[in-house]
User: What shape does this take?
Amino acid sequence: KQEVTQIPAALSVPEGENLVLNCSFTDSAIYNLQWFRQDPGKGLTSLLLIQSSQREQTSGRLNASLDKSSGRSTLYIAASQPGDSATYLCAAQGGSEKLVFGKGTKLTVNP
Amino acid sequence: GAGVSQSPSNKVTEKGKDVELRCDPISGHTALYWYRQRLGQGLEFLIYFQGNSAPDKSGLPSDRFSAERTGESVSTLTIQRTQQEDSAVYLCASSLAGGGGYTFGSGTRLTVV
Assistant: This one.
């Protein structure tokens, strides 16, 4: 059974810092790994999707990497801004095609 | 449509009443998922539809919960005899088959009073 873990559970940084959010998964037989952002009281916004054949994806200040062999993915946020404050969720999609979510990392970027 | 549409966005209901939540997926997305998120909690898988295959209902918490989907279009999630613990945001997502990534709707916030 796939399990997804996110570390840290919460992170507070000053504006302008570069930061890394970690995600690990137990079953390496995945189709893809997806990173989402969730603002309080809102739904999920997809940030980056990494297919199993890929090693990384980039969008603006965001870069996500995937290492299937070690069961890890990282989300790198460059030059963080207060508007980046949200909960970041990673999710692994495997053979059952269900997304299995981590519990998220709550990020606060202080002005 | 351009995105996944859910309705209503908010629903307040009295304990014991039935409610029906609607999800309209992205056109052409064969897979559709329902998740539940209680306040301050993570996402809880409820049910998964893929094309004409039998749905995966393994996440439904009780027989008060049911869901239907007609072909590759709209899905409805029905909760009968609602209880206060059913209060949550119910999220719907759709995707192309074969790992194309999920798109989520904005959710329905259900409050049972």
Q: What stands out?
A: Chain A has a mean pLDDT of 93. The interface with chain B takes residues 31-32, 34, 36, 41-46, 49, 51-52, 89, 91, 93, 96-104 of chain A (CB under 8 Å).
